[in-house]
Design brief:
By secondary structure, this protein is mostly helical. The protein has 13 helices and three strands.
């Protein structure tokens, strides 16, 4: 690479860092009233390219649409924040030092070969954060919650994207969840919440990375756990066993969820703190747990 190309790359990188810094600085201001106003307007707006041939013509569910857009906007802000934090850490400003010191001591001899995801590079983290963040921002602008036969559906400007509430699809596996819960001493609501977050309760879904089924087990992890990930019962049992291992290893639900999502190595080396997907994951799953605790309590009556 010649000097001219190197100079151009450095200029582009400098502009990128300034842009991200400006977005982050603006995010520190109290824009809540303006953000709420903009989301409310977007929820009530009729998309210009709305197709008249949609299979359903029910009104938009405004409260759910606003809640969905707020969640997606929070994801966008989390992605930008974590990208900036990683950039800041690269120039020598460390964060969460006390926690890092404590964890370093606790897991001094930590080794693992069973992670779902290998340790990520700085570039991969920033690239994924920005990609996911701007996809979430696109959803803020285009997605609404509509109903078909009384069931809420996620709809973008042209197509039905999926179910807004996957709890029915998850609770159909309630018996298998409770069996795995009893075997590995894991709260069934936590198992159910992970299933919803990972797959929406779909047993045959596969991620772009190759994770399989309800609890999105990677083939290597499933093999180490001794389960067939294509068998729904075994998938739930294997995912619960893996989750129980992380709970025992790290001693908290938050860090166990971080390890489940990003891999133990990315918890051990603290990189999960900068992975926005993982930060959103450890925020969303406990919220879903509250819903499933009520559902399992009702089911046991």
């Amino acid at each position: 690479m010649n000097k001219e190309n190197s100079r151009k790359i450095l200029i582009l990188l400098g502009k990128f860092i300034i842009l991200i810094g400006m977005i982050f600085a603006l995010g520190k201001l109290n824009w809540a009233p303006l953000e709420n106003w903009a989301i409310d307007r977007l929820a009530h707006a009729q998309p210009r390219d709305q197709q008249p041939t949609l299979l359903f013509q029910d009104k938009v569910d405004i409260p759910d649409t606003i809640a969905y857009k707020k969640e997606k906007y929070l994801i966008f802000k989390t992605d930008i924040k974590n990208t900036v934090q990683l950039l800041v850490s690269k120039i020598g400003i460390q964060t969460s030092a006390p926690m890092k010191k404590e964890l370093s001591k606790k897991f001094k001899t930590f080794e693992s070969s069973d992670s779902k995801v290998v340790a990520m590079s700085d570039w991969d983290i920033m690239k994924n954060n920005l990609k996911d963040g701007f996809n979430a921002l696109k959803d803020v602008a285009t997605v609404r919650i509509m109903t078909e036969d009384g069931k809420p559906m996620i709809v973008d400007s042209k197509t039905v994207v999926g179910d807004y509430d996957s709890s029915d699809k998850v609770m159909r596996w309630g018996k298998e969840i409770q069996a795995a819960s009893a075997k590995y001493d894991v709260d069934p609501a936590l198992i159910a919440a992970v299933i919803e977050q990972e797959s929406g309760g779909k047993p045959d879904i596969m991620s772009p990375a190759g994770a399989i089924g309800l609890m999105q087990l990677m083939p290597r992890t499933a093999k180490e756990l001794g389960v067939n990930p294509y068998d729904s019962t075994q998938n739930i049992e294997g995912g619960t066993k893996y989750l129980a291992t992380q709970l025992h290893r790290f001693g908290s639900v938050e860090m166990a969820l971080a390890a489940y999502n990003a891999g133990p190595e990315n918890v051990f080396n603290f990189r999960y703190m900068y992975i926005a997907e993982t930060q959103n994951y450890i925020r969303n799953v406990p919220a879903l747990m509250n819903k499933y605790q009520q559902k399992f309590a009702t089911a046991l009556k």
